[in-house]
Every structure is written in C-alpha cells, then in structure tokens.
C-alpha cells in the first residue's frame, strides 16, 4: 500500500507558519507524506487566518472546493486549524458538515490525538482554552537554514480592532530552558538563523515565576534577558525576533541588540496610526511621540538598523487629518517596509460595532495613498545600500534565475547574487558571504559575491 499523503495550506502570520511546521511533523510521525498537489492528498489541512475579513473569506472558498471533493471521496480527511477554526468552532462544522476536524491554535500539538478520534468515526471540534504542552514531535521545517522558535503564545492586549487575543488565548511563555534546548537542537541540525516569535514578544516572561534561570535576582525573566540567555548557542549565526509592541519596548532591549553580535539590526515595531486620538481609540497605550522616541533611540546607537512596521488606515472615525498624520509618520521615520491594511471589522471586537465606520471608497483611497508613501520610502531607504558591501546569509537559489543565490542582509533585505564561487548551491546554503551591491530596488538588492 502506498503511504497516505497530506497537503497543508497556510494562511496568515509567522505563528501560523510555525504551527503548520509542527503539525506537518506530527503527520509525518504518523506515516503521512507531504504532497504539493491537493488532488493527491488523503488529508487536507487548512491553517487559517482571521485577521481581516478577506483572509477569512479566502478560507471558505478553498473549503467549498474540498467539501465537494469529499462528497465524491468520503475517505478524504478535511481539517481546519488556526484562527478561523478557533473563531468559529463548532459553527464551522455546521457550516461545512464535510469537515472532520476543527482545531484552534492552542491544540496544534494534539493533532495526533484529535485525528485518532476522527478515525474512530467522530467529527471533532477542539477549541476550548488549553495550556499548550511542550511538543515532543520534531517539526517539519520548510527551511534548512532558518527556523522559527516560539517564545510566547497568545496576547493579553486589548486593541479594539483585533481578533488575535480571542483566537490565540492568554499569554503563555515557554521556559528559557526549553527555548534554549530547542535552539541547541536546531544548531546541531545545521540551522544558522533563528527567529524568536511572539505576538507581543516584549511581554515574554510576565507569566513565568520569579527567580528562574536567566532572570535578575528575585525578578522575572524578560525578553531582553532571554536574548542574553540564548545568545551563545554555538552554530547559530543570526538571531531575529518579532513582534515588538511600542508600549513595552525598552531601552535595555536596544542595548542588548547593539551589544549582542548575533542579534540582527532589524526592528519590527507596528505603530498602527500616527494620530494620538486614533491610537487611544485603538487602545494601543502609546502616543506617536513615544513611537518616534523609540526609533530615535534605536538610531542613536544603530543608525543603519532597518525599521519596519504595520499600519491600519480608515479605522472607525478616522478623519482625513488623522490619516495624514499616519502618512506624515511614515515620511518622517523613513521605514524600510510597512505592512498596510484597511481596517476590517472583526467579530466580537469593540470597534466592529461602533457607528463611525468608514466607507469602502475611503478605505481603498487611503490605503492606496499610504502605500504610495510606503513604497517611496522603501525605495529611498534602499538607496543606502548602493555600492556597499553587505553580509548575506544564503538561503536558496533565486527562483526566477537559478544562476543566482538568494539571501538576506542582517537588516532583512532580500538580496540576490550570481553564484561566482564555483561551488554547488548545496554547499553554499547556510553560509554567510559578503556581496557588493550593484543594483537596488525598493524591497530587494542585487550584488556580486566578493
Ligand atoms: N501583535 C502585533 C500584530 C498582530 S496582527 C502588534 O500588536 O502589532 C498583524 C497586523 O494586522 C497588525 O499589526 C495590524 O496592523 C493588522 N490588523 C490587525 N487587526 C486588523 C483589523 N481588524 N483590520 C485591519 N488590520 C488589522
Ligand atoms: Fe492584536 Fe494588539 Fe495583540 Fe497585536 S498587541 S496581537 S494588534 S491585540
Ligand atoms: Fe492571522 Fe491568527 Fe496570525 S488571525 S495574523 S494567523 S495570529
């Protein structure tokens, strides 16, 4: 008998990507093999995102197709995981009765158990609030160079637009010991770069007992302490992390990043809006002045650091002047990249029921104008790389031109370079090389290996 095959489609953020790798690990332990073709699969898993309505709707259109296939092939197993699964729970089973399993993000590590219930003939919904146990299976990671490491799950913030706290649950930090152990394991498998993950990574440690490893005497460990604690793992060359929240961002963290050679000079700090009243209505807990000070503090010690962010336009009640303050902030800071989005009302969030919602026309107009500013700034920021020598870590070939390798600068700019080393790509992957930049584009660079 040929092995059973699974197919995973992942929507949403890095947390979901990391979760998908863990679920793929569980499936491979069960004897399943990966297929890129959904038609070949015996098990299809959608790991879903609910951050905006269009992300959610995309899932339903995929599901509609698979539900039809399932009616022709009852042996197909259909799983919906992730944030839409958590948001909808059993309602999703009613909406798409062909589904076998609906599971929230806190149940990722239980995929094996949940599937045995399915194979015993049950339709299962696992969306109750749960403590996330340490995973005993090995994730099936997509990269052989760079790996995600969860450090804190969930989010305790109450941003009035955001679905994440209700779908990802309360904050839960992993202990510094298990995080370090995972990183050591990755290093011994040849990984060179890690990205530490948390929705609000600055909150790391708040829920752990005081006086543990890595913490100051009698105090609680913080994210900055964690960086010092894991920094010396041999074999790991680069450490990245996301996402920072301006409310909690500390000068100690800036110092750690400047001081620790493996921590890359890239700060992803969403600001969401450049207007103080909108920030207040969003319940973000900072002003644009505070945000600007953070960036000034970073640039005072790391002038070349990349600064990236997220922003929302057309939040309920946002006036033209308030929107312009967001554009102004983008222009003043000079971001390397800003992920922009038009406000989308999410079920169960406070702002969704406010009466001052803006029209679709205003949303798309402001989004377009902000994107224009973002692209101009990115292009401007890229200019500083022209003619420079940059260190890139090689991750793969350039999919559009196999003669070129693809890597990233420490500041997370994608860079391509012709492979003039005479070495095979397999020998180059994971290596850090210097390239001289010959061409700059807003979001990527081209160079020659020195
Ligand atoms: N924890 C991170 C971001 C998490 S969600 C933070 O606090 O910054 C990723 C991004 O999606 C957010 O930064 C925000 O810009 C966007 N987003 C979240 N909810 C949204 C909504 N209802 N409508 C539009 N964009 C939203
Ligand atoms: Fe959402 Fe705010 Fe939490 Fe970020 S900090 S995940 S925007 S609630
Ligand atoms: Fe989406 Fe869930 Fe991430 S809603 S952005 S996949 S936390």
Relevant terms:
450 residues; binds FE3-S4 cluster; 5-stranded mixed barrel; 19 strands; 6-stranded parallel beta sheet; alpha/beta; binds S-adenosyl-L-homocysteine; single chain; binds iron/sulfur cluster
Task: Walk me through what this model shows.
The structure is a single chain. The chain is α/β, with parallel strands linked by helices and 450 residues long. Helices cover 34% and strands 22% of the residues. It contains 14 helices and 19 strands. A 6-stranded parallel beta sheet has the order 2-1-3-4-5-6, sandwiched between helices. A 5-stranded mixed β-barrel has the order 15-16-17-19-18. The longest helix has 23 residues, at 360-382. Bound molecules: S-adenosyl-L-homocysteine (SAH), iron/sulfur cluster and FE3-S4 cluster.
Give a brief rundown of this model.
With 450 residues, the protein is of the alpha/beta class. Helix content is 34%, strand content 22%.
Secondary-structure topology with pairs:
Layout: E1 5-10, H1 14-29, E2 33-34, E3 43-48, H2 53-72, E4 77-81, H3 82-88, H4 90-95, E5 101-103, H5 111-119, E6 124-126, E7 146-150, E8 152-153, H6 164-168, E9 172-173, H7 176-188, E10 193-197, H8 223-230, E11 238-242, H9 251-259, E12 266-268, H10 276-282, H11 288-301, E13 306-313, H12 320-333, E14 337-342, H13 360-382, E15 389-398, E16 401-409, E17 414-418, H14 425-428, E18 432-440, E19 444-449
Parallel strand pairs: 1-2, 1-3, 3-4, 4-5, 5-6, 7-10, 10-11, 12-13, 13-14, 17-19
Antiparallel strand pairs: 8-9, 15-16, 15-18, 16-17, 18-19
Bound molecules: S-adenosyl-L-homocysteine, iron/sulfur cluster and FE3-S4 cluster.
